[in-house]
């Protein structure tokens, strides 16, 4: 295995260049680099190359980071975006290292492959064209996956282009019914507007 410090600095340098090129704020860039360094150190302690990192390693790292936060502060992080902020930084690093992230699923069904293709294009559009923050992209992709799974369960997935406003409103109404008031208030205003007072 190559010298971890040298390897870390190579990837962190590429990450800094990417953040500068995408015009991230200095504060966000610094946070991304610090989280990426912690993740690389986490991998190095387990003798894992960043190029071989998997979703399981990201999850293990996230759990360890939460435990360390709890040890220092006496409680788990108390705001919703704490974990996504960290995982989005790790995902950005892994996209640079591995070329794409998340890695393609080997045993994906045609429906899963279809959803991942759409979500991948949606992610690229939000990040590249719209320039949205990693946390926003992550949250919106999660909701997009839920919607695509929902339409697939109803046998309408392959006809997504034919989705009507009635179908979208049915999903929003069903989804809003499963959210607590606090969670619903944290959603974008357009989500509640689409719901039309269904809560």
Task: Write a structural description.
By secondary structure, the chain is mainly alpha-helical. The protein has a domain at 1-101. Helices cover 70% and strands 0% of the residues. It contains nine helices and no strands. The protein has helices at residues 4-21, 26-45, 55-73, 82-98, 110-129, 134-153, 165-177, 181-185, 189-195. Helix 2 (26-45) packs across helix 4 (82-98). The chain is globular, with a radius of gyration of 19 Å.
Largest sheet: none
What would you call the quaternary organization? single chain
Q: How many angstroms separate the termini?
A: 55 Å
Helix content: 55-70%
Strand content: under 5%
Uncertain stretches of 5 or more adjacent residues:
181-199
Radius of gyration: 19 Å
Average pLDDT confidence is 78
**SSE arrangement, N to C:** HHHHHHHHH
List keywords for this structure.
0% strand, 9 helices, disordered C terminus, mainly alpha, 70% helix, 199 residues
Task: Please describe the topology of this protein.
Blueprint: H1 4-21, H2 26-45, H3 55-73, H4 82-98, H5 110-129, H6 134-153, H7 165-177, H8 181-185, H9 189-195
Helix pairs in contact: 1-2, 1-4, 2-4, 4-6, 5-6, 7-9
Task: Give a brief outline of the structure.
The protein has 9 helices and no strands. It is mainly α and 199 residues long. The model is unreliable at 181-199 (pLDDT under 50).
């Amino acid at each position: 295995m190559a010298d971890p410090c040298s390897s870390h600095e190579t990837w962190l340098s590429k990450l800094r260049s990417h953040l500068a090129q995408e015009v991230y704020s200095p504060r966000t860039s610094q946070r991304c680099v610090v989280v990426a360094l912690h993740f690389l150190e986490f991998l190095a302690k387990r003798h894992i190359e960043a190029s071989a990192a998997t979703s399981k390693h990201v999850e293990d790292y996230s759990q360890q980071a939460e435990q360390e936060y709890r040890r220092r502060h006496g409680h788990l992080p108390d705001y919703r975006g704490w974990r996504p902020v960290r995982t989005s930084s790790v995902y950005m690093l892994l996209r640079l290292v591995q070329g794409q992230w998340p890695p393609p699923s080997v045993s994906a069904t045609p429906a899963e492959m279809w959803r991942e293709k759409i979500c991948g294009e949606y992610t690229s559009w939000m990040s590249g064209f719209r320039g949205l923050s990693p946390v926003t992209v992550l949250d919106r992709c999660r909701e997009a996956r839920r919607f695509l799974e929902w339409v697939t369960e109803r046998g309408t997935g392959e006809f997504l282009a034919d989705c009507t406003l009635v179908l979208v409103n049915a999903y929003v109404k069903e989804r809003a019914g499963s959210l607590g008031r606090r969670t619903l208030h944290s959603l974008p205003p357009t989500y509640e507007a689409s719901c039309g007072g269904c809560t």
